[in-house]
Write a structure and sequence with these properties.
By secondary structure, the protein is of the alpha+beta class. The protein has one domain. The chain contains 5 helices and 7 strands. The strands form 2 sheets. Strands 6-5-4-3-7 form a 5-stranded antiparallel sheet. The chain has a two-stranded antiparallel sheet with strand order 1-2. Strand 5 and strand 6 form a beta hairpin. Helix 1 packs across helix 2 and helix 2 crosses helix 4.
């Protein structure tokens, strides 16, 4: 594949020319799930959020120059060979893009999995919920997991990660660091 970009899914499946665009059925399924988060969720907002959640990571995959599995790309970022592409970059950038929409019936959340486990790699993502609901009644929007191809599920149904509020994890990390340093 000379000259062609090769992006791989988390399973190592090649994506010539980057991750594939979502089908209308995939976007419609996410939009329906977002709309079903609450009776007051505007279906137009849900559809717009679903389209952005699928399309924007494709732009990010090109911007981040994704050519490997997520963990291999992480190594490149950590070595300075790529500017961005860690899970928290995907989460930060997707959240910022969704926030530009100024949704009236939807809220955005940030979450971390494995954030307090020193053995496992922590993972960050963005979630979307009905306005006023917490992240546990939300939908995980995870573009990192599959190298720019959106993974989504209800928070409690994500079989790979147990998600916790980002600010709680960060506060506990800070508390532990201060205790370790003797500053508590």
């Amino acid at each position: 594949m000379s000259g062609a970009s090769l992006t791989l899914s988390a399973c190592g499946t090649p994506y010539p020319d980057g991750p594939p665009q979502a089908s209308k059925a995939e976007v419609d399924a996410l939009a329906a799930s977002i709309a079903a988060l609450g009776a007051h969720v505007d279906p137009v907002e849900a559809a717009r959020a679903a389209r952005i959640a699928y399309d924007y990571p494709l732009q990010l995959a090109q911007q981040y120059r994704i050519t490997d599995t997520p963990l291999a790309h992480n190594r490149k970022v950590n070595r300075g060979q790529r500017p961005r592409g860690l899970c928290w970059h995907w989460a930060e950038d997707l959240q910022a893009r969704l926030a530009q929409e100024q949704f009236k019936t939807l809220d955005l959340h940030r979450a971390i999995a494995n954030g307090l486990n020193p053995i496992l790699i922590s993972h960050s993502t963005v979630l979307i919920s009905a306005k006023g609901d917490d992240m546990y009644d939300a939908i995980v929007l995870d573009p990192w997991r599959d190298g720019g191809r959106l993974f989504w599920s209800k928070t409690r149904e994500d079989k790979r990660y147990n998600w916790y509020p980002r600010l709680e994890i960060l506060a506990e990390r800070r508390r532990r660091r201060l205790a370790y340093e003797g500053n508590l």
